[in-house]
Structure formats: C-alpha cells, structure tokens
From TrEMBL:
Pfam families linked to this entry: PK_Tyr_Ser-Thr, Stress-antifung
PANTHER family referenced in this protein's UniProt entry, alphabetically: OS07G0541900 PROTEIN, RECEPTOR-LIKE SERINE/THREONINE-PROTEIN KINASE SD1-8
Organism listed in the record: Oryza glumipatula
Keyword field contains tRNA processing: no
Subcellular location: Membrane
Domain Gnk2-homologous: 25-129, 139-248, 686-790, 798-911
Protein name: Uncharacterized protein
Domain Protein kinase, chain residue ranges per copy: 354-635, 1017-1295
Amino acid sequence: MLRRSLVAHAVLLFAAVALPLAAAQPWPVCGSSAGTYTAGSTYETNLENLAVTLRANASSSPTLFASGALGSAPDTVYGLLLCRGDLSSSDCADCGTNVWRDAGPTCNRTKDAILVYNQCYAQFSDRGDFLAATNNSGGVSRLISGTNISSTDVAGYDRAVTELLNATVRYAVENSTKLFATGQRVGNDTGFSNIYSMAQCSPDLSPAQCRSCLDGLVGQWWKTFPLNGQGARVAGPRCYLRSELGPFYTGSPMVRLPVKADGLTPASAPAPDVVPAITGGKNNSGSKILVIILPIVSVAIIIAVISLCIWNARKKRRLAKAERHPGTDTNEDFESVKSTLLSLASLQVATDNFHESNKIGEGGFGAVYKGILHGQEVAVKRMAKGSNQGLEELKNELVLVAKLHHRNLVRLVGFCLDEGERLLIYEYMSNKSLDTFLFEQKRQLDWAVRFKIIEGIARGLQYLHQDSQKKIVHRDMKASNILLDADMNPKIGDFGLARLFGQDQTREVTSRIAGTFGYMPPEYVLRGQYSTKSDVFSFGILVIEIVTGQRRNSGPYLSEQNDEDILSTVWRHWEEGAIAEMIDHSLGRNYSETEVLKCVNIGLLCVQQNPVDRPTMADVMILLNSDTTCTMPALAPRPAYLIDGTSGYSQTCPACSDGAMRRRSSVVHAVLLLLVAAAALPLAAAQPWPVCGTGGNYTAGSTYESNLLRLASTLRANASASPTLFASGVRGAGRDAVYGLLLCRGDMSPSDCFDCGTRVGDDVAQACNGTKDAILVYNQCYAQFSDSGDFLAATNNSGAYSLLISGTNITSADVAGYDRAVTELLSATVRYAVENSTRLFATGQRVGADPGFRNIYSMAQCSPDLSPAQCRSCLDGLVGQWWTGFLFPRNGEGARVAGPRCYLRSELGSGFYTGAPMVLLRADGLSPASASAPAPDVVPATTLVKKNSASKILVIALPVVAVAIVAAISLCMWTLRKKSRSAKAEHLSELDASEDLESVKSTLLTLGSLQVATDNFDESKKLGEGGFGAVYKGLLFGQEVAVKRMAKGSNQGLEELKNELVLVAKLHHKNLVRLVGFCLEDGERLLVYEYMPNKSLDTFLFDAEQRRQLDWATRFRIIEGVARGLQYLHQDSQKKIVHRDMKASNVLLDADLNPKIGDFGLARLFGQDQTREVTNHIVGTFGYMAPEYVIRGQYSTKSDVFSFGILVLEIVTAKRNSGPYFAEQNEDLVNVVWRHWTEGNIVEMIDYSLDRNYPEAEVQKCVNIGLLCVQQNPVDRPTMADVMVLLNSDATSSLPAPMAHRPISLSDGSSGYSQTVTQLSPR
C-alpha cells in the first residue's frame, strides 16, 4: 500500500496563524501518487454528490457523523464526515458545505484527500480501507501551533498535557455516546496555567476500539510533536486528539483537572449525552442492606429463571422460523406481517446459501439474490449485518409493503429474522430494473412498452398517494427502483425510505435528507420538506429519462458536455419547438408523436419548482389517458433546477429609517429584494447572505481594499480573543478609512468565532463586488463594513440591516396562536439576554401542544458595547415590528433580523444554536431551562442532596423488587395468553390451510374479545341483517368495529366467510372497507370490519329526509369513490376481482360520507388476462345484475360496470331501480331515464331534494356515464378506467353517446324492491 504510506507520512502542516488568511482552512493532506480524476468526470460527480449526502446525514445525526460510498467501480468514491461533538447541526451543515466546496480543488483532484477544519474532519478516497479500519492506519493529519510555551518547566508541561489527554480520553470512552469529550487543566505555572483538550472517535467504533485508537495517539504524542509546543492535534478518520493553551470548543469542559487534585473532577455542565457518576461517602450500614437485599434478589432470580425456562420451551414449540426478532417492534403494523415469516434454512436452500452466482444486485443496505422458494422464483434482499440503517429500512419496508396491494407495486412474499440475518423476499422480476434497459439495452424498449411503463408507474404512484388505505410518499422514485416483469410491466420497488402520511396531511419536514440526487425536488433538498408532490417531481424526471433515453445527472445537475442538464436541454428544445431532437434515437421514428409530446409536457409540468404548480398523480393519469394534447395545461416559466441544498432562507433587505445616513437609506431601498428561494444559488454561495450598498465603490488593489482586509483580520483576532466575541474598529484615514464590526454568536467557541472571521475576510471583497457598504450575515457571525462610522455610534439598527425568512409556512391553521407564541418567546428571550447575560445573548425554546408549531426556538443578541437598557430598547423595537414593520409572513416557519446593534431570530428548527436553551417557555408559563449547557457567563444554581443510608437502600432495593414483580406478572400473562391462543385456534381446521388463508391468520381474534366488544351480541348493538347473518357494532381495543356474524350451521355462510377472508386479505384501498380480523370459535364465524358510522348509502339515498344530507358535491364524490374502488378491483390490484354484488346497500359511508365498497362474499378472482367466466350458480341482486349474467351465467368486470351504471342513475335520481314507482308504470329506472334522456328533458329525473343546487353539466355527464354502463352488450360498456377518465374530464362534449337503441335492464317485476338471489338456473 505504497500510496497509503505516502499519505500517512505527509508533511506536517503548521497552525493557521502562519498561513495566509484565505488559506487557513482547510488543512489538507493529499495523496501524492494516488491517482487523479478529471473535471466533469463521473468520479467528480460522485464525489460532489457524496459530499452533499454526508453533509445532510451528519448534520441530522445525533452523533454528527456520516460515512458512505457512491458509484460503481472504477468511479466508486468512499468518504466520511465527522463534525466536532459540541457543534449544532446547523454549524455541522455549514462545515459540510465547506467540504463540498473544497473537496476537489484543494487537492487538485487527487483521489486521496483529507480535509481538516476546526469544526469538522472529512476524508475521501477511491478505496474504502479507512472506513473498515479501527484505528488511523491510513492517512492522518498532524498540526502544530508553531509557537512555544513561555515556561521553562517543559517536563512539567509535558506531564500536564499527557495527564489531561488521558483523562479526556477516559471520559470520552466511558461517558459519552458520541465518543467525544472536552477537557481543561488549571495549574499554577503562568506559562501553562490553562490547557484545553479534546478527544473524539468516529461513533461507529466500539468504546474499546475508540480507547485503543486514542491511547495510541497519546502514547505517540511527544514522539511526534515538539515538547514545548503550545498546541497540537492529530486528525484521523477513526480518532482525533487535540491540546491547546487557548479554548477552542463551546461550553464548559466535560473534564476539569486541577493541578493538585488526586483524580478527575467532573465538569459542572456536562454535555447532554453524558451522565456523570454519583458517588457517596462511606456507609457503615452495608450489612443491613445485604440483609434486606439478598432475599429479594434470590426470589427475583428464582422467578426469572423459571419464567425464562417456560418461555424458552414455548419458544421452541412455536415456529422455528420466528426464532429471534432483534430490534423489531411488536406493534400492530409488525404483527400484520408475521404470517409471512420464513425460516433462514429455507432461504439458504433457495439461494444456494447466498452463492455469488445467484447475486443479482447490490444496494445501499445489502445485496439481492435470486432463489427458488417452494417452486416459485423469488428475489431475496439481504441486509448487511450489523447495519442499524438496514434494520430501520427493513422495518419500514415491511410495515409499509404489508399495507400495499397493487399490480404496479412489487409484491412481498415474506421476510426472515434469524441468527442476525435480516431478509426481505419479493416476487422475482425477470427483467430486473428499468435502468438496465433504458440506459444499456435501449432497442428492446419500443415506444409502446415505454408508454406502458410510464402509465404503470403513474398508476402505482396514484395508488400510493390517493387510493391506498394509508397515504404513502415513496421518496426514492428512480429508474433503478422500477422493476420489470416478464411482460415488461413496471412495478415500483424499494420502500425503505417511504413514509406514511395522514389522509389529510399535505407535507412533512425531516432533518435527514435521504434519496437520490437528481430525482429529489428543490424543497426537499433545501428545507427537508417532502410530500406527494416530491414523488411527482421524481416521476417527471423519470418520464424525461424514458423519452430521451438519457440519465439525469445528479448533484449540481451539470452534464459532462456543457453547462446544461437534461431538463434544461429538454425545456429549451420544447420552447424552440424542436423536441423531436431530444427523443431517444434508438426509437427511430417508430412512435406516436402526439403521445410523445404529451409525455414530455407532463414531465415538464411535474418538475416545476413550486410544488403547487405540479399536478397530482390523479391529474397525470387523466392527462395520460386524454386523446389530445390540446387540453394540456400550459407550462409555468422555465423551472429552476439548480438546487442549493444548504439553506432554505430567502433574503430581504428592508427599507431603513430616515436619519443622518441618507445615502445608506437610499441604498437599502434600492436593494429591497425578496428572493423566492436559495435554489438558484450555487451551493457554496448560500452563506454569506449579503446586503450591498449601491453607493461608492473601491477598486481592486486600492488602499481602501487593503485597509478593508487588514481591518477584517484585526476584527477576527480581537473578537475571537474577547470574552464577548465582539470587536469593532476603524482602519485608515480620510477617504480610505474603513469602519467595521464583527459579532459572533454568543454560544460560539473562540476558535469557531475565529473561523467565521476568516470567512468574513475571504468573502468581504467579492460578496458585494467592491461596494463600500457591505453587510455579511452567516449562521455563526455578523459583519458590517462601511466608509462611514455612523452605524458604530448608533444604539439601534438605524442603518442598513438584513431580514431573512425561511420561505416556508407552518402546517397549523392557528396562525394567530402561532404569532402570539413567537412574540411571547421572543420577549422572554430578550428579557433573559438583557438581565442575565454579560454577552447580552440568550437562546430560547417554547414547547406547546399544537403539532404545527410544537417547538419554537429563538435567539436574541446585542453588540456588547451597548448598555443593557440600550440593548432592551433595540431588541424590543425588533419584537414590536416582527409581524408589522418587517412584514414577515404571519405563518412563516422562521425569520431573523440581523443588524449591527441587535439581532433576533425565531425558527421551528432546533439546529441553529448549541447546547440547551437558556429560556424554556411552556404553553402554561415560563420555566428555567432543564438541562442547561449555558454560555460561560451564565452560572446556574447548583444543589446538593444529602443521601442517607435509607435512601441508598431504596435506590438499590426498588429496582430489584420491580424486576421480581415484572417477572411474576409475565408468568401469569404467559399462562393466560397460552389459554387464549389455544381457544381461538380451536376451529381453525375448518378452513383450508392454503397460502391465501395463511396471509390472514395474524388477524385471528378471540370469541371472548368480540363478546365483550358487542355486549355478547346484544340486540341493541345490531346494525343490520343480511342473507347470511347479522352485523353488530362493537368496541374492540378502543376502536369502533362492525362485527359480521354468520348464521350458525350455514354452509353457505362458511363458504362466504372463506371467500371474503381470502379476497379482502389481498385488498388495500381507501374506497374498500378494511378487514380488522376474524374469529372461528365454538361454531361462530365472524368477520370484523372497520365501523362505518353513516352505515350504507341506501339508508340516505332512499329516505326522503336523509337524502337532503347528500348534496350534489357529496353524491359526485361517492360516485367517483365507488368508481375508483372498482377500478382498483378490476385493474390495479394484484389480483383481478369481480365484485358481483354492487348495490347501494353495499356502499358504506364513513364519518365524512366517503364511500367504501363492502361485502365481498360473492366476489370472484380473475386471472389478469381473463375476461369472462361462466357459472350455473347465479347470485346477486335483481335490478343490479347484468343481462348476460342472468340469462347465460356469464360474468366479468363488465358485470360490475353494469351494476355501477344502475348505482349512478340511482344516486342522480334518488330512486331505486325496481321500486314501487316503476312497478306501477311497468318500467324500470333505466328505461325511464333513457326516455327522458332521448326526449331532452333529463332534468325532470334529477332528485328534487337537490333544489337545482348542482352543476347541470356535471349531472348530465353522470347520467351519460350511467347509460353507457348499462348497455346490453358488455363490449359497448366502458371499463372503470374509462369511467374515471370520463368523470374527471372537464366537459361532456367529448363523452361518447350511449347506443341509439333502448338499453335492456332486467328487474324482478313481482316485487317492489330489489331482491337478492342465491341461486338461479341459467336459460
């Protein structure tokens, strides 16, 4: 490993003070013979994308650490990012941004690169050895201060440093989950009276590995560095050690070592993740404690052993495949998939023990193998062992996929959790993923196949977003996650990053950005906001890729050939009318130009920057199924595709008050800007947020510029050395005089303040293009420069200042309550800053009940040269103008005012300051911060509780007693549970043990629980009665349910139950009633469904009073919902299903009158390619059954379409198809409606209770659809997919006309009501 050796023996770099200002950070170590990459290469793209991913993941991780790899050989890039353990997530993200900016140019595109900053450490390479090592065996960086101590006692200094480093290492290993600690040694020698230290390991090491790594550094410390050097550090990928004579970390030290102490003194304000040991004095009552404790312990151990033995025996008797479930939740979601649990042995046999020849792919969390399981080809996804990410992804994927059943979603076969293995088993997709065809084997994808893939993906996403029982956002839609079956039908896979939404929820925010660059929308990368519109954006990218056959570049989105990405190029060609040039050349001219244009249009609509401008997937389906492009919505202005990823802030430079500074006032008025989002900025330009004057300018190389840079350097040195982290001053005289100030955030360390000051020096000249008036705002500091010193003499922000807003809004509707909460918190934070802090600085947090703004965070700060009274006046002025003078949006998630005299900020995100808040404000009043790590000038009160021997006995005894009680209770519960399980499985043998039935066994309920739920099937709980039994309302585990009780001894009841169970187990749709469970005990056969408080549609529709609750909007929603449910049954579910009993009484209504199709007792499974079935067992309801079914016993999906047509006409007219009205006239509903339709007076048939409060065109459209559905010939009837397109079309002009001849409808003339038929011989 010659290359690694060269890196490891890199030249030592000296401290920043010896380097030019702009070159201070990073301190790089670059491989000299490691190989290089070229600009614009795939390796560089992977490096940039990996840097952005590491930044997002590290800043959102509690340990501030991330590692990973990106790309495939030979362009694979490995990397890690470790932020200093005392940083805020915001500061970690900022350091990660610097890494992204510097990673390539700093080492002149050398593949081996180490970048060391004061705030973070990053390393990249084309090999992953350093990630697998447990010590710094590869490249490391060694830095020394370059200056020596003033003391002559060098030996004493060396001992002091070694002692402090050892103590810090011990604390990091033994007391911190971050494997991080800071220390301080206070001594008598003035040459080294204070020594500061830091020790840190990458958190993926074990404590033992961390100790070994750090001990190795301590052992080599004085063999590596000068014995009298003031400071030094070793920065490596696995551990990091540092000592200095000046403070360089935030907060108080975790370890404080006095010069004459016998041992270690814990610091007074430890880090939140550190729990200091509690030690007491000598206790002479030890024997008494033993007398009390020993019997209790003995009893507890005996009970625990007995319980363990019984549990272990039961465990062995149960399925071997459920041997261990490490790390999984036993909640309802997980219970629902336990029936698919498989044994490890069966999967080892299926895959030849995971043989390499069976490996078909590898992803972020493990590998995928092909196997033969019970004669079926399967894909086995094997998570990498020991990966918590893999476990979390597996749990997420399991719980979500269990709720999903759709033909365009990959199907879960089972899972396994044995012997540390975590495996998911899916149906095998013989054609693998779309990307392999799209970007490698293009000629196999003709246009018809591509359009089928686009439509299938759209249908699958529509199901996830709108039609499944749970709204789901996939979050990782891309070509490699689209799997293709043998017929090239698409199925969406990989739900590891997917998230559940509430049905009414529109948006969620996360601090951990996960996904694939190039497919992620701007609002997600910038602000962590994701919604169904995020998937729409990804779908748009995918459509463009399918049409063009070109891969979307990731990260900064720049192609290797030019400065345009694929989307920009497609947009330009679209605007120029030359889109044909972008269509995949492998298609030749063998495609429908109209269809291709439609897809490009849809793709561009989906990638609009504003999520509101993107269509829903339901809209996309309508557009895809429309016949022309003339009705396509027009595109918005060119979408912005350049994604920043560092800041969600928009920037405003407000108008300033009138006063002596007329020029500056005019400057700010002139620069009044509101940038919609930072997305149009390059990544590195996110900070600073500048406010630049339009007045005087200076030239490069001028005396003014020289004075400006010197002043910036001076302010940096003075502010970082000041206890208040503030400095102001002037440099030069006359026309070349430069005035300036630098104010660092009050919770920063001097070292971090120094670093922010360095950035000010780097940016001040270029940020404002030589403008003399310049304000630079960073997350860590504020700087201002001018050729006039008025702003330094002011006591408020009377000159220019900066306003920043988050650009996003709260989710809560209680805007007034949010405004009050923010104002209350800001006022409390201001009060604390003025009254309790010598730095005139405070942070705050408000905890409330509204989930839309449960936690609000704040910061208030003044320049410390103001008096407390002046500070209060300045800050109070900001609070007073927060919602009025500054015109901040009243529902904005965050905002700040940054000025030269005072600074105020509020956010819904917690990551912009370090430590615990100084002010904690609860909804019911103000309370002190609970776990404070306050600024150095804030000294919280310390209390000491004296513990007597009795309290010590209780401390020891109570946990032991608790363990014994828990063990005893567990034993009792196990016994009861055993009896319960035995009872409820008593009659399971009545049903077939088929694969279908196995899938619902996890929903088996006890008869006792249902008797309790229904008051033993009390008559008062009865909701209704049908052909095979009664339905009761019940309360089961706090949830209202409907219990369908089959008539005892009825074979038909048993058959119907089995049929309904097997079918409903395969169905998950928001317009289908949901199965809760079933019971087979003591001859009872019960199905338990979710309870529908509004019962069935017929109870409203055919009741003169009740129907008034059904206005037209509700009726149309019911029609659309039923249609959507039937479309799922016929086309989108994994199994094609014909309901065979669609009628008003089988359409149930929830609390919001949303429809759900119920009663699947007569339903039948069809093969996907099957179109018709014949039976001699006619079942259904007269008036709803199709003619071909009654006459010839033929049924198909078109039978349900016929029934749906009847239902639509009933909903419009509020008349039964075979009611008394029609019996008297010897006509049924269909014929009467047909007659009025042909005579042009259909209005006479519309339900009079609607009182003309309906859109006539929409009602006529529904009547038209209804009549189309009841055509005599099934071929003439539309499919339910056609019906959905017709329902969502804007006009009736494009609707096909019903056949000219009179429709035929069979009804039972002998009865005034619809009649259920159980058997009728066909003619």
